[in-house]
């Protein structure tokens, strides 16, 4: 302790300090478990594509906070490559790609990895049921979804919170990709039976008062009691769970849902519920919840397509510039 | 315990500075000492009159701390050495400052949590944590958890779940300290801390009580329900414990379960806190104990774009204001792109070409208008609409008057029927040859070709059998239509197939005929085989009668094969005469002609040398005398379509068929059934000659416009739109049965039209002669009986038949009944 003017290190050395990568927890929007996050969805973004759409979950607080942003573009129906065999139906392919900068904390490689391949396959499954492929023989419809930003929770090593439970980030990405791609297909004018909306629901482990005492904000203290041993775990259904949320998701389900036809095009569940029962009831509750989330998303898609349609009518002069009012109907005769 | 560990475990303010107090000023150099003394004087001067009591040592310390900055030191001293405060307390942990004992009422767990919260924002040196209740020495009086009785009732092994501790890993918060592990914060951080403390000190001056709870007060104003005092006062742990827990700020917290009695009130307090936010009832996730799922709030789901999105879409964000209150499902399957929607705003290239073509042929009056470019488009649009308007203006001919005054030859259609190989086609080929329709060269060519495949006697038949299959098999398969004319009449031959597999085609031909020519094979055994139960001589005759052919010419053919035997001819005539009268042909509408198709005897020219015993007319003369007597030209128009074809570029849609009733002229509008499309007559051909009009009995070719060819098929009926036929799905038939009839599936034939149907009920059987009811609702109807049955059409919406139409019911290749629609 001779030189107090300088900051000396300890004689034996220390481990380097660790800093938090970001304050994602700080910006979680407060909402009830049955409230969906708001969605911004707009079509006709990519000029060369036949149809396209952009979807994002807005973040009100800080613009640097990662949120879900993705674009979908649809090319087609266009002729199949000459090398391929004859197909009486349109062949729909879907490809989902994470941008290298999209994942928080870690840059992704450009090369398609297993996660992307898996999501692409699921996306194409979810979409193909809605498209009237019989109307377009010998054609290809290609859907490309590009994830520009996501909230994490992708199941990467080191990305997890380590608190147990399942990661819902991929589910959220897939559900949003389904909704966005469906809007893009509608934007392309491809005949569909229905629009597909994606929805996610999760079962949240509830540790009594400790469910959500996470950092609520600067200086705030919910004053919750200390977590204690519980005889029975309470489980609450939460719609549209955020991977940035500070809670433990025991199990989650993502669905692709066609609201008008009341048909599921995709179901993806993961996690485990209670070890005692077979989990049928819980799974059904989860899927029901996901469908409810999808119904909500569907309304957003409807609005986006309605807006696109009015824009199209406006372009060809069927409606006047300011003629859109009232109930949103057009001035067509 | 090594010195490092000591250092690491030190509390930066509580302990290190205590050490510092221990007189390490001795190391200060001379110049520093001088500067300190000067600063001390200045500070003292500045503090004059403020009433702050502070020792020189403390001032020096502050000066040292602020690098001899007098101003800062004064501020510091003023803020931290309020009259009531002991200077020694200054560097203590903020928590003891902000959560003084008297008011700090939070329970141990919540206060520990709070401790964590705030330490996060402070320079943090202690990476290792204190364990709650387990002392780590350093002069603090500590008691272990065991001493405190934590594990009093706990077994050594098999610790129950509710007694186990939970390890909560707290994420590491960034801290203000610089890397390197020094216990002290950076100067900047110290400055920040000083400012904070100054603010706190100013509040303290307002009043001890208020200042002491400054932080908590702020908290409480946000969340009043959390007012700590009332909650946890009875739960306060021992004071020493509290100090420990207040100051603990850890990367790991081991939370030891409290003994059971203490837990209960705490839980209540906690849950009341968790749910007790009056202003923010929806903060995060309230505990939902019921399993119901609430529907999401849809109304607010439309998000606003981020700045990122705004940069993407630009002004489009607000191009069209959507009314978001209308959330009804929007049922458009695909939004039209602008290009697609524009695609039909002007006539297609095809329409323009068609319009130009029709204009160039003078078929449209719109041609004169096509001068200016604007009018050109208008004309093109009008050309699209021309489809439904007459190409030529209707000339309003009084067809009936014209027909009466016409001097052209009469028309007659006849169908040639008879057993297979009776020589029908050969006879007709001969007829055509003799009438000069087919020239000698063609016959010679056919003869050579027929000899080549060993069918030399078939060369006349080849005039009518034109397809390869018909020629190689030597049988007629479909109706062949040919025309020839005599001095008085234009004849249309409908050469029907004799083979039993093609009886439906024969029905189609017979339905177009005015009368029938029944060809009989006179050679030994052949006539009999054709006349037996399954012979087509018999079936064709009955069918022709049932279809409505009332006149019949019996040509006894192949007499050359029986050496022109008169007896044979007489025998056949008698047998047939008897049969025909039984079948319903009156004797005066029946005539017999002996002939030979192959040799040409008694067809065009008489053959006195071979048939010395015959004095009657030749075949041609008989045909001329068999002209139809009356035609239903006053009835509404009915045409059964025999064939639909493309009559060339000018006439994309043409039909052929017989006008069964009524009359028509160019420009007439027609209605097709069952497709219910309208069409306009563009041109009429009778016997391949153009005509302005046509009446019942004519076999015509009509060129149509304004209709797509897909709406027409053989068997459809064209009628006038004024008096259309209503397609029937279920109707009553008065039938003559040929087989036993029970409720069964049948094929319904009417000309080219055939449909699958079903006899659904037998209404009554009737007496043949008087027509009186013999039995109501019979179980079955035997062969050869009159009956009334109800027939239903299956597999289609209905067939265009009306009262008086004659239909044939067939099943499995046999004709089971013939009847009239009632």
UniProtKB/TrEMBL annotation, chain A:
One of its GO terms (biological process) is U4 snRNA 3'-end processing. It is found in: Cytoplasm; Nucleus. One of its GO terms (cellular component) is nucleolus. Residues 36-191 form the Exoribonuclease phosphorolytic domain. The keyword Membrane does not apply. Keywords: Cytoplasm, Exosome, Nucleus, RNA-binding, rRNA processing. InterPro entries: ExoRNase_PH_dom1, PNPase/RNase_PH_dom_sf, Ribosomal_Su5_D2-typ_SF, RNase_PH. Its main location: cytoplasm. One of its GO terms (molecular function) is RNA binding. It comes from the Eukaryota. Belongs to the RNase PH family. This is Exoribonuclease phosphorolytic domain-containing protein.
From TrEMBL, chain B:
InterPro entries: EFTu-like_2, HBS1-like_N, P-loop_NTPase, T_Tr_GTP-bd_dom, TRAFAC_GTPase_members, Transl_B-barrel_sf, Transl_elong_EF1A/Init_IF2_C, Transl_elong_EFTu/EF1A_C. GO terms for molecular function: GTP binding; GTPase activity; translation elongation factor activity. Belongs to the TRAFAC class translation factor GTPase superfamily. Classic translation factor GTPase family. EF-Tu/EF-1A subfamily. Coiled coil: none annotated. Component of the Dom34-Hbs1 complex, also named Pelota-HBS1L complex, composed of dom34 and hbs1. The lineage of its organism: Eukaryota, Fungi, Dikarya, Ascomycota, Pezizomycotina. The keyword Nucleotide-binding applies. Residues 82-91 have a biased composition (Basic residues). Pfam families: GTP_EFTU, GTP_EFTU_D2, GTP_EFTU_D3, HBS1_N. Its main location: cytoplasm. It is found in: Cytoplasm. GO terms for biological process: cytoplasmic translational termination; regulation of translation. GO terms for cellular component: cytosol; Dom34-Hbs1 complex. This is Elongation factor 1 alpha-like protein. Keywords: Cytoplasm, Elongation factor, GTP-binding, Hydrolase, Nucleotide-binding, Protein biosynthesis, Translation regulation. It comes from the Eukaryota. Residues 81-110, 224-276 are annotated as: Disordered. It catalyses: GTP + H2O = GDP + phosphate + H(+).
